[in-house]
Amino acid sequence: MLKLLLFLHSLSKIAFHNPRDLRHVFGVANSVAKDIENPIADIRSFPHMDFSEITERSIRLSFQTFPRIGASISLVEAAVLSALIHKINAKRIFEFGTYKGVSTTQIALNLPQDGMVFSLDLPEDHPAYSLAIPKVAEQQIAAEKGKGILIPHDLEGKVTFLRADSAKLDTNPFRESIDLVFVDGAHSYEYVKNDTLKGLEMLRPGGIIAWHDCTPSHPDVVRYLRELPHMPTLVHGTTIAFLVKAS
């Protein structure tokens, strides 16, 4: 009750000095309310970590910017992903969801010379998928052509493209040999579950599995991650959550 009274007092002061600022206050409040109105998609129960806590040593990260490219990781998220790679000296990365290749590029830039990222997406000539993808926007992304088109030519030697439905992926050739798995394919519950379970099969003990879009706007991602035996850690200021596989 005290916090509510203090909030109302602040609103009255804003209304008196500059009523237009109330639009911003109510906009932020509305956004936060939407984030927590659906209990299934509430991320407050996740352990949180600041970027500075990911690694204890000084590291040099490499980035490439892609202005105005949507449906991909932000620059801050690229930094988090790169720091996780350096944290465990990863050489073999498996990525679910190539799309245009923004995250693939960031991964490749931060791998050693003998590193490799295996990036999986649907084949462009037959983009059929076998599990449910309810959102129309994601169905459209799945059918888009130009997968990996933004990856610079000088990094292509560090990328192995795999073109298949992840639901039909055979993990045996990769079993317990991957240092880091990045799950950023379809965001439906069925595909997040499929990609996570297969990612854990491929991940070596002590390796890291990370998920993109752990946010209320993607409730199926949050819902599945909340069901895991061990809750992943969410990095402040990003939608990236990660978990270290037990040794």
The total count of strands amounts to 8
Low-confidence stretches: none
Helix content: 25-40%
Work out the oligomeric state of the chains in this entry. single chain
The helix tally amounts to 7
Alpha-beta content class? alpha/beta
Amino-to-carboxy terminus distance: 47 Å
The coarse silhouette is globular
Major beta sheet summary? 8 strands, mixed
Helix and strand succession? HHEHEHEHEEHEHEE
Describe this structure in words.
There is one protein chain. The protein has 247 residues and is an alpha/beta fold. The chain is built from 7 helices and 8 strands. Strands 1-7-8-6-5-2-3-4 form an 8-stranded mixed beta sheet, with helices on both faces. The longest helix has 17 residues, at 21-37. The model has no long low-confidence stretch (mean pLDDT 91).
